[in-house]
Amino acid sequence: MINLKKGQPINLKKELNVSDFRVGLCWDPADEYSPKADLDLSFVVLRNGKFIQDEDLVFYNNKFGVNGIVGSIDNRTGEGDADDEVGTVNVDKLDSNIDKIIVTASIYEADLRQQTFASIKNAYIYLADNKTGNKLCEYKLTKDASEFTIIEFAEIYKDENGHWNFKTGEDGFTTDTQDGRVVAANQITVINKYI
């Protein structure tokens, strides 16, 4: 298994020999006394570099909006040793105009609960072969993300040669303005970058 560094790209076919894979998000509560943070794994799908329709946000309430992607189960606490949130991607089944998938991790109801990524620990994302179950690579979140309520944890993108790649990241957001109100950043914040 490959331990990825921040910003490190990896070619899915050449380096991992995979096109059908699971994307897992795992975390633990920061401590036993604080309210448990609920992280949500989402896929923001771009077509020719743009977000063009609501169905292209794949998450626990829209698991099957895009052919080739299945949204995540919803674990609300991060407790236990099993995977906390898992979605699947099969790049061979994606529409030809899809060229990037932003993988986000966000804190559910961050405003109400007054939580950021400081409310969790041991967060990481991984890819596993959907056929064999073998974990192929993982990336551990750094402390740089502690102030955020949503993070662009990774992107799955097609390069200029048409090859699919996976690249880690930690572009994060704390607040956003929606309908004239300042709210905790969420998936809409990410989508607005790509409209």
Features:
6-stranded mixed β-sheet, globular, mainly beta, 6-stranded antiparallel β-sheet
Can you describe this structure?
By secondary structure, this protein is mainly beta. It is 6% helix and 45% strand. It has 2 helices and 14 strands. A 6-stranded mixed beta sheet has the order 1-10-9-3-7-6, with no helix packed on it. A hairpin with a 5-residue loop joins strand 11 (150-158) and strand 12. The N and C termini lie far apart (35 Å). The mean pLDDT is 87.
Strand content: 35-45%
Helicity, in percent? Answer: under 10%
**Low-confidence parts, pLDDT < 50 over ≥5 residues?**
none
| Termini separation | 35 Å
Mean pLDDT: 87
Order of strands in the sheet with the most strands? Answer: 1-10-9-3-7-6
Shape type: globular
Most strands sheet: 6 strands, mixed
Structural class: mainly beta
- What is the number of strand segments? 14
**What string gives the helices and strands in order?**
EEEEEEEEHEEEEEEH
Number of helices, where a helix is a run of at least 4 consecutive DSSP H or I residues: 2
Structure described in brief:
It contains two helices and 14 strands.
Topology:
Blueprint lengths: L1 E2 L5 E3 L8 E10 L9 E9 L9 E2 L10 E2 L14 E6 L7 E10 L2 H4 L6 E10 L5 E6 L9 E9 L5 E10 L1 E4 L2 E4 L2 H7 L2
